[in-house]
Hints:
Blueprint: H1 3-16, H2 27-41, H3 55-66, H4 72-90, H5 93-103
Helix pairs in contact: 1-4, 1-5, 2-3, 2-4, 4-5
GO molecular function, one term: fatty-acyl-CoA binding
Keywords: Lipid-binding
Protein name: Acyl-CoA-binding protein
Amino acid sequence: xxxxxxxxxxxxxxxxxxxxxxxxxxxxxxxxxxxxxxxxxxxxxxxxxxxxxxxxxxxxxxxxxxxxxxxxxxxxxxxxxxxxxxxxxxxxxxxxxxxxxxxxxx
Length: 106
């Protein structure tokens, strides 16, 4: 299994999910994707925590900080597993197509 290729496909799917469509990750799931994407692509947090009035920025920074020390490959694997879970939960034809496109990558 190519971890990187599956991760790249999963990122493409998450980034292109239509707003208001049948597959909508919750805010917690979106934060999960965010922190694992950052850890997988950058590594540990490398910037200062946003100011106290930047609530969204702080939530994202705090989420990313939670996975500090996780390897980039483990972050990629967690990202893909979570997306497959979200897609299976949705259970739509579109979701099944996405699942097949990820699982077909060797």
